[in-house]
Each structure stands twice: as structure tokens, then as C-alpha cells.
Specification:
This protein has about 230 residues and is mostly helical. The protein is about 65% helix and about 5% strand. The protein starts with a helix and ends with a helix.
């Protein structure tokens, strides 16, 4: 293994180790604050926005604390060929953002991208199984980028799904185009769990007040996933 690759792996490991500690502590703080508060506004989209803001701030602090920063650059989009899963809450949030921010010209481009995505991915998505590693590999090998990419940039970057926000490369970004999950890439699922999932789950329980049907409906909104493009073509 050459020295550059070893360096990429070390950076990712250092960030992951620190993230595990920081995220657990931050998650405990969030839960304590939730438990002390008697009432929450019954607005899951508002919670989503608040937790996204908290998540982004946490990730910024994490990279500053470790003095290790992602090598991801503007216009690099190697990871956008992976199957991107999103929840219904994320779909609503992205839809609202698009209505308020995306131009008519960009919308025309997105419609063409979605048509192209469906044409090339139809066979894969018909048999795609969530959580099936082999199916994810088959999807990725098709090398069809997310239809929200325009001119190699994310047209919904500010509203992008959480799974996009917690995936980073600390290695050579060019490797992301030619390799599948190259050395030095990191998916910070532990951060997503502690900063976002735990908070949303506890707020749902708080506002449901024992109403199981309401709780199940809200959990489905917050955590039930589809491939991101499928939400916009249902």
C-alpha cells in the first residue's frame, strides 16, 4: 500500500473515531434537552430543518477539531452514482426548496435528467432491494449519476438528503469517479444516528402522546426510505 493511500485511510479513521465520541456526547445533550421540554410544535418539517442545521454545524466542528478536511471539491460528483436513499420528509423538504429556488431553465434540465435516469435504470430499480449490498453494487456499476446533477453540480445542494451530507472523501477525489468506495471515504452513519435520528424519534414520541397510529405514521414519514429519484416520479 503506497504512502498516499495509507494517509487517506488514517485521516478517515481519525475522523471516524472522533466523530463517534463527539456524536454520542452531542446526542446525549440533545436527548436531555428534549426530555426537559414538555411540548414541541407538531411540525416534522420544522424539526427536519432544525436537525439539518444542527447536523451541518456538527460536521463543521468535527472537521475543525480533527484538523482534517474533506477532499471533496466543487464539481466532483463521483459519489452521486451510488443509490441515494431519502425519506418522505426529505422529499417534502426538497420539493419545497425546489419550488422556491430552482429556475425554469434548471427544471427543464431536471426533467430530461429524470427521463434519462429512468430509461437507464428501469431494470435495476424494478429489482432493487433496500439493504441488499449486491443490488447496491449493481446499481452503482450502471454509473448513472443522480438526476439532480446539472453541469456536474448538485442543483439541490442546500436541501440535499442527509445520506449525502454525511458521506466524505479524505483521499484523492479523482478515485471516486473510477472506483467504488475508494480508500479514504467515510460514511458517518453514527453522526446521522445521534444528531438526527434519535432527536426526531424522541420528538415523534413526545407529540404522539401514546397515539400509536399517529406515531407509526410519523415514523414512516421520518424514516421510511425510497431511492431519491423515485419520490419525484411516484
Amino acid at each position: 500500500m503506497n504512502s498516499n493511500v495509507s494517509s487517506y485511510i488514517k485521516k478517515a479513521k481519525d475522523v471516524n473515531y472522533t466523530a463517534a465520541i463527539m456524536a454520542k456526547n452531542a446526542g446525549d445533550t440533545i436527548i436531555n434537552a428534549i426530555l426537559k421540554k414538555e411540548e414541541f410544535e407538531d411540525n416534522i418539517l420544522l424539526w427536519h430543518y432544525e436537525q439539518l442545521h444542527m447536523l451541518d454545524n456538527f460536521l463543521k466542528l468535527l472537521h475543525e477539531k480533527t484538523n482534517t478536511f474533506p477532499s471533496c471539491k466543487k464539481d466532483c460528483s463521483g459519489c452521486c452514482k451510488y443509490p441515494i436513499l431519502a425519506t418522505e420528509v426529505e422529499y417534502f423538504y426538497i420539493s419545497n426548496w425546489i419550488r422556491n429556488n430552482v429556475t425554469e431553465g434548471t427544471m427543464d434540465c431536471l426533467h430530461k435528467n429524470f427521463d434519462n435516469w429512468h430509461q437507464k435504470m428501469e431494470e435495476i430499480i424494478d429489482t432493487f432491494e433496500y439493504g441488499n449490498k449486491q443490488k447496491s453494487i449493481e446499481y452503482t456499476r450502471k454509473n448513472v449519476k443522480c438526476p439532480f446533477l446539472t453541469n456536474n453540480s448538485c442543483s439541490i445542494y442546500e436541501a440535499r438528503p442527509i445520506n449525502c451530507r454525511v458521506y466524505f472523501s479524505y483521499g484523492n477525489p479523482k478515485s471516486c469517479e473510477s472506483e467504488m468506495y475508494p480508500k479514504g471515504t467515510l460514511n458517518l452513519d453514527n453522526v446521522k444516528h445521534n444528531i438526527y435520528n434519535v432527536s426526531i424519534a424522541n420528538k415523534i414520541k413526545n407529540v404522539s402522546k401514546g397515539n400509536k397510529k399517529k406515531e407509526e405514521t410519523m415514523f414512516k414519514l421520518a424514516f421510511g426510505v425510497l431511492l431519491l429519484p423515485l419520490w419525484f416520479t411516484k
